[in-house]
Structure formats: C-alpha cells, structure tokens
Write a structure and sequence with these properties.
Elements lengths: L1 H19 L1 H20 L10 H10 L4 H15 L1 H21 L3 H18 L3 H7 L2 H28 L2 H18 L7 H6 L3 H12 L7 H11 L7 H10 L1 H15 L3 H6 L1 H7 L7 H25 L2 H26 L10 H28 L5 H30 L1 H21 L9 H5 L11 H13 L3
C-alpha cells in the first residue's frame, strides 16, 4: 500500500510537470523560428523581402519586450500566484503567432515577433513552480526536463519548417498554444506560495493532495515551509526591495554563469544555425538538414540531463559539460585554421560532428544548470520576482549577441568568434570549481541558508502555531 501511494505521488508530479512543459516547448519554437524563416523569405516567390539590417532586427526582435515579460511574470507569480501566471503566459503567444501568420510586409512581421517576446520573457520564470512542487530527491530530474522540452521545441520547429512555409507553421503554433493554455488550468497552486501568503491550511491540503499522502507524512515539508518564514514580517513592497537587495550574491552568481554560457557559441548556433553552417563552407551537408540534426543533438543531450542531475553534483555536471564543449569548439577552429583556404576540404564531417557533440554537451549540463539554478537558490518570498530580473538580464545578453553577430562576424571572421567561444567554455570550468553553489540533495530552504544564515531566529510561537495548524487541519 505504501509503495502504491509513492508511485501515485510521483505520477502526479510527472503529470503536472508535463502540463507545464509546453511553456518551454514554445521557448524553443520561438527561438528557432527565424532559422528557417529568414532563408524562406529569401526565396524568389516570397512576398516579403528583407535586407541584412532587417533580418538582424527580425532575428533579435523577439527579445525586445521579453524584458517586460520577465518582470511582469515574476511580479504576477509573487503577488497573485503561480497558477494565475500560467494562465497569462500564452495570451501574447497566441496573438503573436496570428499576427505573424497574417503578415504581408516587414513591419507586420516585426510587430508579431516583438509581441511574441512578451510570452518568451514570461516563460522564463516557469521553473519557479516546478522547483516548488517537486520533492527534494526529484527536483534535479524535474528541472532537468526543461531543456529537453526547449530543444524538442527547436527540433519540432526546424523539422516542420523544413516541409511547410513560415505562415502555415505560424498557424499551427497558434492552435497548439491555445490547447496548451487550456491544459494549464488544471494544475494546482504551489503549496510553498500558499504557505508564504498565510494560506497555511490550503497549502497543507494542496501538499497532501500532491504527495497523495496524509498530513503526518508531509510533516517534514511543512516544517521546512514554516522555517522559511519564521521571524519574518509581512511581505510588503518595501520588504520585497529589501529581499531583492539581500539576494545580490546568488543573483550575481546566476547572472555571471548565464553570461558565460550564452557566449560559448550556443546562442549564435541556435539563432543562426544555417547561416553559421554556410559561413563554414561545408558543402557535404545541406544547411537545413544540419539545423535539424543540430537541434536533435540538443534534444538527446537534454534527455540525459534529468539522469545526470539525479546522479551527479551540479559542479561535476557543469565542469564535464563545459570541458566537452571547449574541446569541440577548439576542434572546429583548428580544422578551419588548417583547411581555411583549401578548395576541397578533406574530412568534411569533422566540423558538423563536433558541433553536434557541442550541442549535446551544452544541453546535458551548461545550459540547464545556468537556466535553472536560480529557481533553487533565490529566496522563496521573492523567487518569482528575482527570477524575472534574472530573465531580463538573460534576454538582454541574448538580444545583443543575436543583433550584433552578423556585424561582428563580418569584421573579425568566424575563426576569431570561435576562439572567443572556446575561451568562454574554459572560463565556465573555473567558475564551476570556485563559485557554483552545490544544491543537489538539499531542500530549497537549506540551499537558501547558504546565503541567508541570518541572522534569522526561530520564533517559538510560529513553530508552535505550525504544529497546531497541522493538528487542526481536517483531511
């Protein structure tokens, strides 16, 4: 009987995670849509023709309002709950896909992509919810599932647009977005958010339902939620600002890590897959097929992520991933150095194979850790808001890289860019050794105590009231 309850609780975690994952599916779809969009617009029969400057704006435009989406979503999560936030995520997504599908000129296309950025930014903080509903032993695996969906979205988008036009694909994405929004209505509210808001009885009921267990078997989680709010005053705007300022150290760690990761070359390859491949002048493989296999490599790497996060420490996973990435980029650079001017380059599959392994390694370690570590180390009361701030910085970096890559590569050439990417990969290894906090096997409250050992004192009255509440809840 006990085993049955355990399996049922795990199944609930998995089901709610699967319902949330389409939020990340469309991050991958949105980010990779331009990979085939730009080449399709260059075709002779296209009714929209773009110059190089317009192409760079289309490629980077999805990030323009993503900053607003990040801050908006974080604030919504902390003030009104994770469930309200999920309902709002897909509204700008649906609108944007419809606008893009109906576009007949550059301006309309640009506006459609800009609107989509709101949803892209809002999606960034979805990991907050998953970190809060997962058991400590399962949290790494659940957060590790996010890059699987992200890369699956990229692969689905690339594969679909290899066969259909950009406007038909946009209609398909609009319909599937609406279906995903409907399913999100069935997830429960986060027990941790409910508890922090003083809705303790409802939080305990939700937690027991999620774990498919009685109140005694979730007592440890209840005590952990109580401990996280002991001695803390009511959350006001002033206190929100204070908590954000107090969180400077975990925020700085996460921001530096994501900045390093985005400059490893993955951002460029993700947004300009076909164009980078053409720049490397490898005629043995079609650019469109290279883009599909590159995305597939990311999916395979992402599939390994939950297992690796369950088995390895975060430090080990990040270091191994970054080391493989560095070796792959260096292999590509060395190949280009040796055969740069060769009219018929030998061993043409060396470069695509190295880039496939690079995509695999990045999505098996560096990407998921950089993307989700904030959901573990940010303080619970303002986790959504700080995750939103982190998202703003993430999207600013992405925008700058995507916007200026065409100009920089024309000035310095692809070799210099690849050497710089290799340096960033090696820098991540040093960062992982010296600065990355270890979160594996720790509750969210234990993780936060690394930074907020406060000086916070346990309030006996609060603890006692927590136990009294558990006695009074009628389950």
């Amino acid at each position: 009987m006990k085993f049955g309850f355990h399996v049922t609780g795990v199944v609930k975690e998995v089901v709610y995670t699967i319902i949330v994952l389409p939020v990340y599916l469309f991050i991958g779809i949105s980010g990779s849509y331009v990979v085939f969009l730009l080449p399709q617009l260059d075709l002779p029969g296209s009714n929209i023709h773009l110059n190089d400057d317009q192409k760079s704006w289309i490629a980077s435009s999805i990030q323009l309002l993503s900053y607003f989406g990040c801050l908006f979503s974080g604030t919504i999560q902390d003030l009104f709950g994770r469930k309200v936030y999920f309902f709002l995520v897909f509204i700008p997504q649906i609108i944007s896909w419809i606008v893009v599908a109906l576009a007949t000129n550059y301006d309309t296309m640009l506006w459609g992509m800009v609107i989509q950025g709101i949803s892209l930014g809002m999606s960034f903080t979805a990991s907050t919810y998953l970190s809060e509903i997962a058991l400590t032993a399962h949290r790494g695996a659940i957060l590790g599932s996010l890059p699987i969906t992200y890369n699956l979205g990229a692969m689905v988008c690339n594969s679909l647009m290899y066969y259909v036009s950009w406007n038909i694909a946009a209609w398909i994405f609009a319909i599937t977005s609406a279906m995903s929004m409907f399913l999100l209505l069935f997830i429960p509210e986060s027990p941790i958010w409910l508890y922090n808001k003083g809705k303790k009885e409802r939080a305990i009921r939700t937690l027991c339902s999620l774990r498919v267990s009685d109140i005694h078997k979730v007592q440890g989680e209840i005590d952990d939620m109580q401990k996280s709010i002991d001695g803390k005053p009511k959350l006001t705007l002033t206190r929100v600002l204070i908590e954000i300022l107090k969180s400077w150290k975990p925020l700085l760690i996460v921001v530096v890590l994501q900045s390093l990761m985005q400059n490893t070359g993955y951002t460029i390859l993700f947004s300009y897959t076909i164009l980078v491949f053409e720049r490397l002048q490898l005629p043995s493989l079609e650019g469109g097929k290279f883009a599909i296999v590159f995305a597939l490599s990311g999916v395979i790497g992402s599939i390994c992520t939950p297992f690796l996060m369950y088995k390895l420490t975060r430090k080990t996973q990040l270091i191994l991933s970054s080391l493989v990435m560095a070796i792959c980029i260096i292999a590509v650079v060395v190949y280009e150095e040796i055969f740069l001017h060769a009219s018929n380059k030998p061993f043409p599959y060396v470069v695509p194979a190295a880039l496939y392994v690079f995509s695999f390694a990045c999505n098996a370690g560096a990407m998921p850790i950089a993307y989700t570590i904030g959901a573990e180390i940010f303080p619970g009361e303002v986790r959504g808001t700080i995750n939103g701030i982190f998202g703003v910085i993430w999207h600013i970096n992405w925008t700058l890289i995507v916007k200026f890559y065409p100009m920089v590569v024309n000035i310095f050439g692809i070799k210099i860019i690849l050497w710089a990417c290799a340096v960033f990969c090696l820098t991540i290894i040093l960062f992982g050794i010296w600065f990355l906090p270890e979160t594996k096997g720790k509750t969210l409250n234990q993780v936060q105590e690394q930074y907020f050992k406060s000086k916070k004192k346990t309030n006996p009255d609060n603890v006692d009231s927590g136990h009294s509440l558990r006695r009074d809840v009628n389950l």
